[in-house]
Amino acid sequence: MLTKIFYHFYDYKKKPINLISCILLAIVLVILGLFNNYSTNESTFSRSERAIIIDITLYPFILISKLLKSLALASSTGNLIAIIILGLICALPLISYVSRCIITRKHFSLGSFTFNIILGAMIGIIIYYLINPSLISLPKELVEILKYEYVDDLIKKALDDFRKIFLWVLVIVLIQIIILYIIYNLININKNNLNLFKAAKYFLMFQRICYTILFIIAFFSLPGMFKNDLIGLINAEFGILHIFVLIIIKYSFLYLMTFLMLKVLRTIHDLLVNFTNEILFSVENVIILKKCSRLFLINAIASFTFQIIWNIYQFINKSNIPIEDLKFIVGFPYASLFLTLLFYLLALVMHQSYEIYTENSLTI
What we know:
This protein is mainly α. The chain has a domain at 40-188. 79% of the residues lie in helices and 0% in strands. The chain has 11 helices and no strands.
């Protein structure tokens, strides 16, 4: 429901007001992203990708937990209000499900009811642990090893990293539960009456979730990471200009590939809408599939071009760039090329099916 509401903000093709809402939402996310420090003083340019992903994943929960903690510490009344708000946040999935069943007059499903309870409980556990991080402690065996091999500051850093990873695992489990729930509903659509048109509704929900996440990454996470990279230039001993050029190259291609993925998801949305309207064999669907194939191909070319430019620039200026900032990238866009081929083959199959369908219709 939340992603459906959020989706109308940037479904800019319908009305001009949607385009204005999209721009305003993007501006708000950019401002929030620029004020976000990802709980570190390090530049994301020199940090591992895993650390960045963990910080981005946990940020919404960290923001909620900080607000609740500050409210709880303000006064006894504030503490009571914080407990009530936390309870409402945990109950939101269940309230949403029950209200949806009442409005649509559907029977309660034990599987859906249980899922929403588990979902609310998982959200509550994650937020509660973030409010009280001292409840998460290192395993005793690891503490004993660290006592002999590391100083106290490194023990504290190891504990902070352990807490982050522990909470990140909980978030991943939460996401997996949601995916399993979608698959569960997909398999149990009217039990023995599963078809593409009904399944498309659930794929459409998944598409909206992916679009929402990618939209937030583009206008919230990347601006914050870009700001942190620029702040990190202050600590550079030399090669500031070359590192700045590398940062510009990095984020230019990141935004290009993110834009292409947003275009792909928006195009897939049109295809799924056609399926939900029971429009299967049409020229429009063939065009959509070919467009997706073309976008994935452009994304693969962009990824490969980024690696070439990045590596060549670093190789030419390696003597002017600090050794800790030298990071050569070697990879091949297998996923993009595979999806390029897959969508192209689907377009050919859809085109042939459309011709057969048209011939049969004329014959009848």
